[in-house]
Amino acid sequence: MKMVPLEIRDLAECIQLSQRSDPFSWPDDIWRRSLRDDHCLGLVVGGELLAVAAFSLVLDELSLLNVVVDRSARRQGLGRQLLIEGVEWMQQFGALRCVLEVRVSNSSAIALYRSLGFAEDGIRKNYYPLEGGRENALLMSADLPLAVD
Hints:
Blueprint: E1 2-6, H1 11-21, H2 28-37, E2 39-45, E3 48-58, E4 61-69, H3 78-91, E5 97-103, H4 107-115, E6 119-130, E7 133-143
Parallel strand pairs: 4-5
Antiparallel strand pairs: 1-2, 2-3, 3-4, 5-7, 6-7
Enzyme class: transferase
Function: Acetylates the N-terminal alanine of ribosomal protein bS18.
Protein name: [Ribosomal protein bS18]-alanine N-acetyltransferase
């Protein structure tokens, strides 16, 4: 298992991972823009990209834009490892605080973020697409470094 910075050459793999793992995956143009303009980190196991995190850094504030873990690799701690290493990686570029949005229905992600010291900051109404409507996002943030046990 290894963490690797992702670049535009990894576009096809990111799109495939996202499409098979998320019913509301990012469109191709968003992946292209993020791989070009943001900081993306991948977790590779056995030569296969199993998880991706995309971060944006403005001054000292880090935004977690997206985390995708392959459906077959969930509940194994890969998302936690990717998030911890990704935030540590971004601290090298000056990140002092991390903010994110998460679906209010994504209880496993919310539990992960809380376990790393993220606190709830509010709700963003109708933020995420949902079959037949929209879903609220929970806003969360944490000062860095994360509270890793």
